[in-house]
Amino acid sequence: MSKQELSSAQKRLLIEEKMGEVLEILGLDTTSGPLQKTAFRIAKMYVDEVFDGLKNETFPTIELLEQPGCKGQLIVLKEIACTSFCEHHFVPMVGTVSVAYLPDHDHTIGFSKIHELVRHIAHRPQIQERLTSQIADALSEILKTENVAVFTSLTHFCVIARGQENHASKTETRVMRGLFQEDASLREALFVKE
Question: Quick count: other Cβ atoms within 10 Å of Cβ 117?
């Protein structure tokens, strides 16, 4: 049986076992005290929470809503909270995602569904550039339009906790598609804070 075919319970048990070994290698006492359940908590967090986007590689089913008169109307959702884990060091990167789109038809999707989509894509090991592109890809596919833009602004805990230990920096990535590549005023609607 491949690791992909393991049940969630099997994954939790294996991760708990391996994480317990890591803690012991570091010289930590996991037999009693506050670290006794740490390996279990890490395994549960990985499988059921921060990496639950791996359970289904495709994005959630999102239905288009018929909205007469919305064709060509600029729709912007700013600063959707986002937490993901950097695949290089397995530590969080946190911040916000802003998205914009211009419907080609009289159809939109519910605003909460965009939040759900961002969360789903973020809940797998990521790099910020791919996260931004995958959100744009999913929105284009669901909305059946190339006119999408995605802007991510994240703080990386690998930058905070190691190396230069820089607590102030943020990394921004942007994907512009369709009319957002051509029209500066559309880009400004997404990036200018009011």
Answer: 22
If pLDDT is split at 50, 70 and 90, which confidence band does 163 have?
Answer: confident
3-state secondary structure of 108: strand
- Give the residue from 74, 60, 56, 83 showing the smallest Cα distance to 142: 60
pLDDT at 72: 80
The predicted model scores a pTM of 0.89
Please tell me the predicted confidence (pLDDT) of residue 194.
42
Q: CATH number for the 65-191 domain, one of 3.30.1130.10, 3.40.220.10, 3.10.450.50, 1.10.1670.10?
A: 3.30.1130.10
CA dist 132 and 172 (Å) reads 10
Residue ranges of domains in the chain = 3-50, 65-191
| Active site residue ranges | 86-89, 128, 156, 158
Two tokens at 87?
């695949």
- Neighbouring CB atoms inside 10 A of 120's CB total 20
